[in-house]
Structure formats: structure tokens, C-alpha cells
Amino acid sequence: MNILVLNSGSSSLKYILYRWEERTSLAKGIVERVTQGGSSILHEVIGRDRVEITRDCPTHKEAVDLIMEMLTGDDHGVIDTIDSIKAVGHRVVHGGESFNKSVIIDDKALGTFKELSDLAPLHNPPNIIGIEAAKKVLPDIPHVAIMDTAWHQTMPDYAYTYALPYEWYTEHHIRRYGFHGTSLLYCAKRAAVLLHKDPFKVNLIIAHIGNGVSFNAVKDGVSVDTSMGFTPLEGAVMGTRSGDHDPAIGLYVMEKEGLTAQEMNTSLNKKSGLLGITGQYIDRRDILKAAREGDKRARLALAIETYRGRKYIGAYAAALGHVDALIYTAGVGELSPDIRWKMTDGMQELGISLDPVLNETSVTRNAETEITGKDSRTRVFVIPTDEEFVMVEDTVALLEGCYDIHTSFTYSFQSPDYENRLREEAFEREAQEKPDLRQVRALPAVT
After folding, report:
1. Is 148 an active-site residue?
2. What is the H or E stretch that residue 30 is in?
3. Around 394, how many Cα atoms within 13 Å sit in the side-chain half-sphere?
4. Can you give the pTM of this predicted structure?
5. Terminus-to-terminus CA distance in the chain, angstroms?
6. I need a labelling partner for 19 at 20 to 30 A (CA). Which of 9, 46, 174, 411 fits?
7. Is the pLDDT of residue 138 over 80?
8. How far apart are CA 417 and CA 95, in angstroms?
9. pLDDT at 388
């Protein structure tokens, strides 16, 4: 059974084609710079060279078409026709209180996603576009929605309830929802494997740092608090989102500059964060380069982001009492030793420190690594996230009628001998060029 997973972001579309019976990925890839011009696809197949093709994708529909072409093409394909795809799993960022776990998409569900789009303006609209585009191409098979918010349904009421008129919650469902749940679920389960512990006897702080950023407190294997809130706008400093700030600021600027609510929403979601501080940069690589070259605003942006992150880590350490592991994940968390170091430095009194050499060495998206400092009571891992594989498992389980919430369901990647062959191949290529990577790799004991 071939399962296609689509993870549609604001300017990207990730995909994996997975053959369930063999527990292996046939192909994976990403279309980048969707809607931005200069789009390209990076396509990977086990045992073959990676392929990168440039083709403009003005909308996500063209990106889906390009993926289908790559999967079935004579030169790079892995299936004869798209008819061999039996289901599609889709990432959906915000399910509100209407959904607390993954669901098969029907017209009612799709309508609800559209109603919730204002709550995740950077993601729900492209999520929906991805769903609609794929349903046009593959109309006769099940399409499944995997919710980013589902992981956080275990938060206690004192963590998700805001100090606002209570009627806003009862009448308008205003509460903390949290996001990045699929990524956080994967990292939490993999951390338990690396710690050789029961997945429901671990306390973790997970830092998901990409263009979007969120921190997650995990107590006894379930989410108990997270930095994002009613929408993905709250919390840490992000690429274009403001994160935490005095809510009166928006009202003040709206009055001073005559802005509408929609204009303020755009400013906070798309013109703030690192872009707002630097005036030109979103990508941390650009910011780090500019900072090294003396750009004061780039240096300020790094200082603000890492200081805010350090505060969240400290707050969650206090909330949990005992922390088994701190985990860095997502693009920046996996690939930026500088950000990790600046964000963790100075936390020795809390029992958290990094090894500077191991931290600098750990630059890979293809293996789990450990960068724990010598005297650190809390272990520190870098775990490349795998949202797409969680989506595959949820989709198959729904088709087979055995799906349940994660506290009553065991994923295959919870096994110590779980292996991702595509990542294994990619890691071997990396390790040939950078042998020191093998020294930081975190390998669970196979039972």
C-alpha cells in the first residue's frame, strides 16, 4: 500500500511516498519557494542520486502537479501511475476545538478548516490548497488530516486558559491550543528511545526552531505547556511573527497609524519577528552572516531570539521540576550550532549545558545526535524531526481502523531498532565528508 504525505507550508511543500508493507520510503522531497518565484524541487530516491529541478510554482497546485510528475516520470519516478497511491495524509495546522486527533477529510471537515483559517493565516490556507489540489488529482481515495494541535490536548486547564473574560472561552473557544504537535510527538517518542525509558516516564523540553518557533514542556510523556497559543503568533521570536509582546501595542499603533485589524494582523504575522528587527532577513544563516560582518540589527535580532528562547527553557525547567532531556529540532534547531549555543549558554545552574565541540559537530538532518555538556544533569539531543512519518502512520491506522490518540497507540518509530533508510543513506554520504559526525551520533541500545 503506497501512502503519499503532503506537508504544505506557507512557501514549501514537502512530500513522502511510503510503501507501508515494506516500512520504507520510496521517495521524498520538497518543493521550495512556492509562490515566491525561483521555485525548485529536491527529489530523493533510495539508491539513486538526488535530483534538483527548477520550475516556477506560483501556487501550491503547480507544486502538487510537479510532485506527481516526479513520482511517475520515466527518469525519476518510483511508481508507474498515480493509481497506485491508496491514500494521502495532509498536515493541518489548526483544528481548534473541533478536532483533537487525525481525521479522514470530508466536506464538513474541509469546511471547518476553512472557518479556522484566520487562526493560522500563514499555514491553514496553504494546507487547504494542498488538500484541494491533491483531491483534484486523486479524487477517489481517502485523504486524511493530521492535526498540529492534537498533541497538546493533554494540557491542563490552568495552562491553556487565558486570564481573559471566561465567556470568551465558552462562547468563542479562545484558549491556548499549541502547534507543531506532529513534530513534537515524534521527538518526544524518539527521546524516550534514546533515554532508554518508558515514553510515559520522561520529562522533556523540546525546542522546535524553524521559521516558526515553539517550545514544549512534556511531563510524563504528554504535553503540559507550550509557547504558541490561540494562534501560532504567540510565544518565541520567529522568522516573521512577533511572538510575545504587550497586546496594547497593537491597539496603540492602530490608533496612531489608522490601521485596520487585518493590516495589524499582517504586520504581526508577516512583518515582525526577525524580519521586523533586521529590516531584511528571515533566514538565520543570513542573520548570522550579517552579524559576523558587524550588522548591529542582525546582532540584536540574534540576542533577542536566543534570550527569549533561554527564558522559555528556564520557565519550563521550573514547571517540570526535573528535566530528563532538552531537545533541539526543526531546521534551525538541527543545523545551527550558534543558535543552540547562544540559547543554552548560562544555564549551568539549572543543570543544562552543551559540549562546545559536540555542538559544533552536530550539523545534520539525517541522524540523532547528543551534544550534552560534561557536567550537565540534563541530556541534550538534536533530533531531526519527521512529521511526515507520523502522518503516514496516522493515515494507515485510520484506514485500518486501529488509530487512537498517542497515549493509546504505539508508533513503529518507538522501537529501538527503527531505521529510516533514506536518512541512513544520506548520513553515510555526510559522514564520508565529515567523519566527526559519527562521534556525536546518538544510537539507542537495540533490545
Report:
1. yes
2. strand 24-32
3. 29
4. 0.89
5. 29
6. 9
7. yes
8. 33
9. 84
Question: Could you give the 3-state DSSP secondary structure of residue 391?
Answer: helix
Query: Hey, do 2-147+387-414 and 157-383+427-440 end up sharing a CATH topology, with the first three levels equal?
Result: yes
379 confidence band (pLDDT: 50, 70, 90) = very high
Per-residue confidence (pLDDT) for residue 297, from 0 to 100? 98
Distance CA 7, CA 82 (A): 18
Does residue 438 carry a pLDDT above 80? yes
What is the rounded CA–CA span in Å between residue 362 and residue 383?
Answer: 10
3 with 17: CB under 8 angstroms? yes
β-partners of residue 207 are 215, 328
- Which of 120-134, 307-321, 354-368 is the least confident region? 120-134
Domain ranges of the chain: 2-147+387-414, 157-383+427-440
Helix, strand, or coil (residue 426): helix
Place of cell 543543570: 351
In the set 106, 107, 148, 394, the catalytic residue is 148
- Buried-exposed string 78-105: b where 16+ CB fall within 10 A, e elsewhere: bbeeeebbbbbbbbbbbbbebbbbbbeb
CA-closest candidate to residue 328, choices 337, 318, 319, 315: 337
pLDDT of res. 60: 80
Give the separation between CA 437 and CA 129, rounded to whole angstroms: 39
* Spatial distance between the Cα atoms of 29 and 50, rounded to a whole number of angstroms: 9
- Domain 2-147+387-414 sits in CATH 3.40.50.150: no
